[in-house]
Every structure is written in structure tokens, then in C-alpha cells.
Design goal:
The chain is 33% helix and 29% strand. It is an alpha+beta fold. Helix 1 packs antiparallel against helix 3 (173-188) and helix 5 runs antiparallel to helix 6. This is IrrE N-terminal-like domain-containing protein.
């Protein structure tokens, strides 16, 4: 089932009601149909029996001109195992991000790049006023040419971020934004601390209105793809992010 959405670059939330007819692993994807690898939302949900009812809230603080939403069974690819009982659109308030003008410009640049990273070639991408530079690489490697697991890294002394195309292509747009916000915080705060950059970046990300679950994915996805690199520090980073998000939601 494909639902066209005339998004017109507006900010809104979709409230989606689904009723299962039988057990089904529901896939939900919201994407720009004009370009590949442009998922603004991507989720799966297991329905264990018939007549289960569930609501999904899809936050879309950034959108292109047009979107499509696809609903399907992830096992069969079909759409006869469930019904869409309702589809509601609620406008989102303007983003209230407490940051300097420079940080706002970085976030605007990062969000714009995140939306096109899935279909744009490698190379150098400069912001409008030449403040920030993204170097989009096939992958990020060390001095010996070995690929690193990091999807992005920044120079703390200059506003330049290296980004791995191989990894970014597979991420949703919200995850890309969360990663780039993290890298921006390394530079703006001149810090090597991953925790400091995590919480600073996630604060900006959440203030903008992006979904909370994607912020956790942004921290865990790299570790999940590379379990042999996971240690106590990575586990603690995830715990810190979850605790920060829970506190943020409680005080929103």
C-alpha cells in the first residue's frame, strides 16, 4: 500500500492507525519517491494475531516537496494482512533550538546534506557562506588505508567533517542528522568527549523535532554493525543517551 503525501517542505506529524487481519510483520517507510535512499522514517512492527490495533506517530520536522508512505508485510511484501483505519496529519510547531547563529547555520547545512546524502556523489560540499565543509568520502580510512567503523569524524580546530558514503547511504535522514549534529558539537565545544558531543548533538536534534528513537539508533547502529568493537564505553554511551532522552521527554 502506497500513500502519496504532498508534504511541500512542511513540518508535521502523521498519526497512523493500523488493524491487523492476521499475524504480520508490518513495514512502514516514508521516503522521497524522486530519489533513492531518502528515508525520512523507517520502522517495523510485529502484530502477533488478528484484530490487533496500534497507532504509530511519525514525526517529520523536515520534508521535501513530495513524500510517499509505503505499508507492507516485511515477509511477503504484500498488504492484504492489515487495514489502515485512519491517517491524520497534525502540524508541528516551529523548531525552538537554543543555539548560536553559527550553530543554527551548521544545523541547516547538516539537515540539507542529510536529505541528499543517499543520492549525491562523493566530493567536497561547502556551506553557502563557506563556514563549513563536508568531505564526502567513499569510506573513512586510517593512515594505512583500513576502513574505520565511524560514519563521520570532525577536526576540532576547523569546521570540516569527513563522512562515509558507504555507511550514510544505509541510514535514515534523521540518523544522518543526529550523527552530523554530534560532529558539529565536537567542533563547537572543542571537545574530544564522546558523551559531551552525544548529549549536545541529541539536544539540538530533539529540539528540532526529530523522533527520539532515531537518536538511540544513531548511537547503537554503528556498534550493532560492529559488535566486536563494543565495550563498556559504548554500552555506557548508549545508557547516557537513553537517560538523557527520557529526561528530555519528561520535561518537554
Amino acid at each position: 500500500m502506497i500513500v502519496p503525501i504532498p508534504s511541500n517542505k512542511e513540518r508535521f506529524k502523521i498519526r497512523l492507525g493500523i488493524t491487523s487481519k492476521m499475524p504480520v510483520q508490518l513495514g512502514i517507510r516514508v521516503y522521497d519517491p524522486r530519489y533513492p535512499n531518502t528515508y525520512y522514517f523507517r520502522r517495523k512492527a510485529q502484530f502477533y494475531e488478528g484484530n490487533e490495533k496500534r497507532e504509530f506517530v511519525i514525526s517529520l520536522p523536515v520534508t521535501p516537496e513530495v513524500l510517499e508512505m509505503e505499508l507492507f508485510d516485511k515477509v511477503s511484501g504484500e498488504d492484504y494482512q492489515f487495514d489502515m483505519s485512519y491517517f491524520k496529519v497534525d502540524k508541528m510547531k516551529p523548531a525552538e533550538v537554543w543555539a548560536s547563529q553559527e550553530e543554527h547555520r551548521f544545523m541547516d547545512f547538516a539537515i540539507d546534506f542529510a536529505q541528499k546524502a543517499g543520492h549525491t556523489p562523493t566530493g567536497f560540499y561547502d556551506s553557502k557562506n563557506h563556514e563549513f565543509l563536508f568531505q564526502y568520502l567513499p569510506s573513512i580510512t586510517d593512515a594505512f588505508g583500513k576502513e574505520l567503523i565511524t560514519p563521520a569524524r570532525t577536526h576540532r580546530k576547523m569546521p570540516r567533517v569527513q563522512i562515509s558514503q558507504r555507511l550514510f547511504i544505509g541510514y535514515t535522514i534523521p540518523i544522518r542528522v543526529a550523527i552530523l549534529a554530534h560532529e558539529g558539537c565536537h567542533w563547537f565545544l572543542n571537545t574530544r568527549s564522546q558523551k559531551t558531543a552525544d548529549l549536545c548533538g541529541i539536544k539540538k536534534y530533539l529540539d528540532y523535532g526529530f523522533p527520539t528513537i532515531e537518536a538511540i539508533y544513531a548511537v547503537t547502529k554503528v556498534f550493532g554493525n560492529n559488535p566486536h568493537h563494543v565495550g563498556a564505553s559504548q554500552v555506557q554511551r548508549t545508557k547516557d543517551v537513553v537517560a538523557f532522552i527520557e529526561n528530555y521527554r519528561a520535561n518537554a
